[in-house]
Amino acid sequence: MHAGFGKRSEETDRSSTGTAPQADFHRPSPPLICGFIDQMRVDGHGVESICEALREQGLTVAPRTYRSWKAKPVPDRAVSDAAIIDVLRQVKTGGPAGGPLPEILYGRRKMTAWLARNGFPDVSKHTVDRLMRAEGMSGLVRGRKTRTTIAAKDGVRAGDLLNRQFHTSAPNLAWVTDFTYVATWAGFVYVAFAIDLFSRAVVGWSASTVKDVGFVEACLAMALWRRDHIGRPVPDGMIHHSDAGSQYTSIRFTETLILQGLSASIGSVGDAYDNAAAESTIGLYKNEAVAAGSPFRTGPLRTLNDVETLTINYLDWYNNHRLHSLLGNATPEEHEQAYYASPTGPPSGDAANKKTA
Fold it and tell me: pTM, whole model, 2 decimals?
């Protein structure tokens, strides 16, 4: 309840007419107000003094109103609604500087799953839909994708080893890769991603002001290092799938994949569906992290450094906290931990590659 009260300066505590200031926060529901007053009464405070303190903070509640509420039986639905509304309002204002938490991006179904994991296991999607509408929350509406692929004229084209099969039975059987651009005050910044098809975890990324081969090699290097660093090494022959962009079909990058023991896979030219898994993840990044109003943005994106900071924060949430409907509303990290904790354990490199192929 305490978190619902806003801080106000002395200048605005009283207007020139002597009336109480208007609250700069959403008014809590009667059950929550009653609960707060009840708690303060247990601590020895009187109803009148509590109501006076609330009024000074911008929340006008008369003692007789409180007693009227207490005299009437409160419906169970009103109590449960109040608790959920309190959490939804924390989502709207619980971030840095009073901004929203990342969960503000969730729609009805994913918010229902998130609430079920956070103290409301029996809440229905219909209740969540009703309360989200009442709070003016609708989740994120995805925007259109912009393609950045430019096919090479003299690159080495590997075959398509995935053939649009974007699901695997274990981590590190196949990664999909792609990159996008982010507009900043200093010009375009390009951001590349490597995504594991088993968990949809972003295992590596890189950002640069130039979209050359070194840029995508840095993404691959990070991904390989991170997998080794957390004890989930990549087996020989793992599929590395990309679109037909010149960076990925270049002789230099093809040789890099060979040296790392990876199997190159290239989608068809001009066919977005051949790398749809990577396109989908990039779409989430552009809409959830980069778009204006994102909870991960603290202001304008001025330089490469701003984009790197935004990307680090978003990917930490994406991999460790964001619920993915494809994974049964688990996070990528939870999905991989469940796999490695299973009795069968991780398959050997040869067996894993046969399953993927």
Answer: 0.74
